[in-house]
Every structure is written in structure tokens, then in C-alpha cells.
Design goal:
This protein is an alpha/beta fold. The protein has 21 helices and ten strands.
């Protein structure tokens, strides 16, 4: 993992060193805590910064035979770190082997390989740096050259810490909320009724009908917008579509609100109408809509009961995609209300489906209006990233790609952008070396800078200067909208 890591030819090295390396980051989807950002959370040790909440690592530790007490249990933090250190040499071939060492190198200047033997010294070196007071949550973000952090937030959330960051005004990174209304779509879950009550309270609207429910969602969208929100996100583990009327969707909503289970057909109708309504609201405000599709969550019921969601027991789903996805996009297109949209699938079998579907809905004078989102979750590794990028390049415009996001709960995950950027440069450099594209550094360097930062700066209404990442003047922001 030297300076030429993942760069297999001279053109790739030039593209990375001269065009990609210094570009800022727009983290337009992540799961960082706005509270921890506001408070500039200081980490007691590397385990807290590295292993708490990281289900990527937890899965590999379990696969290496580590007891749960040393993963999510009550074992000492040093013993948990040592368990991970013992596992690291066994992760060769998995991206976490590279990510682990990139994080040690970039954040802590440690170039030793992590293993059982080196673990005690690395524990002391890293913890000494964390104790300096100069490696809090904000410092880690700022030192990674991040310009925007877009968190993932429930519509009923108060956005207290986003507002405090706005009021404080002395953090030079924009931290904006991302609207994630999944709990309002999953009307067969036991939590639906209690969540609707929470939405009612936060919106100040008594929800006793579907019409009131939609008004409450719109009120919260407005609140998110006022707090800087410009992005929504939907976890569509199964993509469903069935055209219906507001009256029919309202009757289904009422049924669920009364505690009754609804049929699969009714669920599809309700989700279709609600997603269409939400898409129209996003389009009105110039928001970007994201669909994260085909996760199969909480597979292990025993461990879900014990630990809850997002603990490493998820996998890919393989439901049909093309027909329901086209239906959802087309109903918005017919209304003239299809917002800018980013599509991701957890199953790489969907790569060419998504890449081809995006081409059916481009237009409106917006470059790359419908985006095939970056390789996600189980796919954000070398082969998965390259497969996604090649599918996009073969069927669309790779040059308009908005690039990488972090999708992480860890403040140390920003090195994944470096990993991604090296692969972008190597892919293009390989095309040059094979004589498939011209060795035109102005052209290719511009494409690299676009994918790394500038395309996302233009695509999202975050008020950034597309070239340098600084904030636009207020008048320029208004005209850009």
C-alpha cells in the first residue's frame, strides 16, 4: 500500500496525483451522528472510534470465531481491539484489510501492519493521539477535506443539533439533514402507529386521516429544507408498484392506523401513492431523491432480538426490480414531477438494469439527472466499484457520475474516498494504456475532478462553489437555484 496503491500504470498515477488526490469531499449520504459532530466528540480509545457501531468489522470478527462478548458485548475495549487485531491478517482479500491500514496511515501516521504482535504498540500510539484533544469528530472531518456532511434523519426528529450547528456558525463544514421517511412507509410494522404519533407531535398536526398524514410529511419536509436539507433517502428493500387513488391509499392507511395488517397488494398501493407524493414534494424544492434498494435485513431473528437492527445480520435481496422501479419513476415523470434521483442496489445483478433504466428518464437540461449511484455496502470494494463504474460507462455517461459517498457511522471512513478515487484513475488510465481513449490530460483530468467532487457540487443544492468547495455568496446561491 505505497503511493501507487491500486494504480497499475503511469497514466493512472498522473491522474490520481495531479487531479484526484487534492479534491474535497461531499459526503452526501452517511450515518454520522449530528450530536457527536456538534459536541466535537472526543474518543476515549481506538476501539470507541473504530469498532463501536461498525457492523462491517463485526461480521468479519464473527467469521473469525470471536465471541460476541468481544464484539458488541461487555468485554474491555482493549480486549475488543486485540480481537480485531488478531482478525485483521485473516481479512486479506476483503476490503477491510486495505481500509484498516489506510485509516491507520492517513489519520495516525502508522505504517505498521496491524496484527496480534503489533497491537499493543499501535493501541498506545493511536490512543496517545486521540488524547491530544485535536482528533475529535470535527477534526477528523475537517482533516479529511470534507465540505459537506449529509446525515440520515427521521422526519420526526427535532434536528436539534443541526440547528445548533447553524446557530453556532463556526464549523467550516456544512452539516445538513437527510430526510429518511422509511418508518412512514412500513405500515405493517408494529412501530407504525407509535411512529405516526411521533410525526403528529413533531409536525403539530393531528393525524387522524391519510390527508393529515401527507400534510404532516410536507410540513416536516419544509422544516428539513429550512434547516439545510436538500436530500431524501428511501430504503426500498423490496421495490413495489401498483397505481391507485388517494382515496384507496387513505383507506389502507386508516386500516394500518387501526392496528390491522394490510395485504401485499394493499401495501404496494399505499407505498406507490406515498412515494409519488413525496417525489412531487422533493421536485418542488429542488431536492435529490435517493432509493437504496434490495437489502435483506435482520436475517438472524435470534440476534435481531438480542442486538437490534444494523448489527451485521443483513444481506442482499434478489426481488424483481425493473418493472416496479420503472413504474415509480414513470408515474412521477408523467406528472412532470420526477426529481433528481440516485438509484442504488445492494445486488450487483441489478447493475445493468439500473444503468439502462436511468437512460430512460434523463432530461430537463440537468446533466446526469437520474444517477446510477456508487457501489453500495457489500459492493463498495474493488470488484464491486469497478463493476458498477463499467456498467455506467457502457450504458450511460461515466463523465457525469457524482461519485463516492461514505455511508458509514465511523468518522474514520473517509479514506474510502481515496480507495474509490484510485480505482477511478486506474480504470481511466487503463483505457488510455490500451489505446481506447486519448491521452488528453485536460479532458481526462477534468472528468476525474468531476467524478471526485465537481459533479456532486453542481448536482446537489448545497450552496458550494463547484470548483473549490467554498460557499457561494447568497446572491449566487439564489441564482443557482
Amino acid at each position: 500500500m505505497d503511493d501507487q496503491f491500486l494504480l497499475t500504470n503511469k497514466t493512472a498515477v498522473t491522474l490520481y496525483e495531479d487531479y484526484a488526490k487534492g479534491m474535497p469531499i461531499i459526503d452526501y449520504h452517511c450515518h454520522l451522528s449530528p450530536k457527536e459532530i456538534y459536541e466535537n466528540k472526543q474518543f476515549a480509545n481506538i476501539t470507541e472510534a473504530w469498532l463501536y457501531g461498525d457492523h462491517y468489522k463485526w461480521r468479519l470478527m464473527r467469521a473469525n470465531g470471536v465471541e460476541e462478548s468481544h464484539i458488541t458485548g461487555d468485554a474491555d475495549d482493549y480486549d475488543k481491539f486485540l480481537a480485531w487485531a488478531k482478525a485483521v491478517p485473516m481479512t486479506i482479500g476483503n476490503p477491510l484489510y486495505n481500509w484498516t491500514h489506510l485509516e491507520l496511515q492517513r489519520f495516525f501516521g502508522i505504517y505498521e501492519l496491524l496484527n496480534e504482535k503489533s497491537a499493543p504498540a499501535i493501541w498506545e500510539k493511536v490512543n496517545g493521539q486521540l488524547a491530544s484533544g485535536r482528533m475529535g469528530a470535527r477534526d477528523l472531518i475537517r482533516n479529511s477535506n470534507v465540505k459537506v456532511v449529509c446525515t440520515t434523519d427521521d422526519p420526526a426528529d427535532s434536528l436539534e443539533y443541526h440547528q445548533k450547528l447553524l446557530e453556532e456558525g463556526d464549523f467550516d463544514v456544512k452539516v445538513v439533514p437527510g430526510f429518511r421517511p422509511d418508518k412512514g412507509l412500513e405500515l405493517n410494522r408494529d412501530s407504525f402507529k407509535s411512529w405516526t404519533a411521533a410525526l403528529s407531535e413533531s409536525a403539530g398536526i393531528h393525524i387522524d386521516s391519510y390527508d393529515a398524514f401527507l400534510k404532516a410529511l410536507e410540513a416536516r419536509i419544509d422544516f428539513f429544507h429550512q434547516t439545510g436539507g436538500r436530500v431524501s433517502d428511501h430504503a426500498l428493500d423490496q421495490v413495489m408498484f401498483a397505481e391507485t387513488t388517494q382515496e384507496e391509499a387513505g383507506a389502507i392507511f386508516k386500516k394500518a392506523l387501526n392496528g390491522e395488517k394490510v395485504s401485499v397488494e394493499e401495501e404496494a398501493k399505499y407505498k406507490t401513492y406515498t412515494l409519488t407524493f413525496l417525489g412531487e414534494q422533493y421536485a418542488k424544492r429542488g431536492w435529490v431523491m435517493q432509493y437504496h434498494m434490495h437489502a435483506h435485513r435482520n436475517n438472524n431473528e435470534r440476534m435481531f432480538t438480542r442486538l437490534g437492527p444494523d448489527t451485521g445480520y443483513d444481506s442482499m435481496n434478489d426481488e424483481p426490480l425493473a418493472k416496479p422501479l420503472v413504474g415509480l419513476l414513470d408515474v412521477l415523470e408523467r406528472k412532470g414531477s420526477l426529481p433528481k434521483t440516485v438509484l442504488y442496489s445492494l445486488n450487483p445483478k441489478d447493475n445493468y438494469t439500473i444503468a439502462s433504466v436511468t437512460g430512460s428518464f434523463q432530461g430537463g437540461g440537468v446533466p446526469g439527472k437520474i444517477q446510477f449511484g456508487t457501489a453500495w455496502w457489500f459492493n463498495d470494494q474493488k470488484d464491486g466499484m469497478l463493476d458498477q463504474m463499467k456498467a455506467l460507462a457502457n450504458l450511460g455517461l461515466f463523465s457525469q457520475f457524482i461519485g463516492m459517498l461514505t455511508d458509514s457511522r465511523s468518522f474514520l471512513s473517509y479514506t474510502r474516498h481515496e480507495y474509490f478515487r484510485r480505482l477511478v484513475c486506474d480504470l481511466i488510465g487503463t483505457w488510455v494504456e490500451q489505446g481506447e481513449v486519448p491521452n488528453d490530460m485536460d479532458l481526462l483530468g477534468g472528468i476525474v475532478k468531476g467524478i471526485c467532487f465537481e459533479n456532486a457540487a453542481a448536482y446537489f443544492d448545497f450552496g458550494l462553489d463547484e470548483k473549490g468547495g467554498g460557499l457561494l455568496a447568497a446572491s449566487n446561491q439564489n441564482s443557482a437555484r
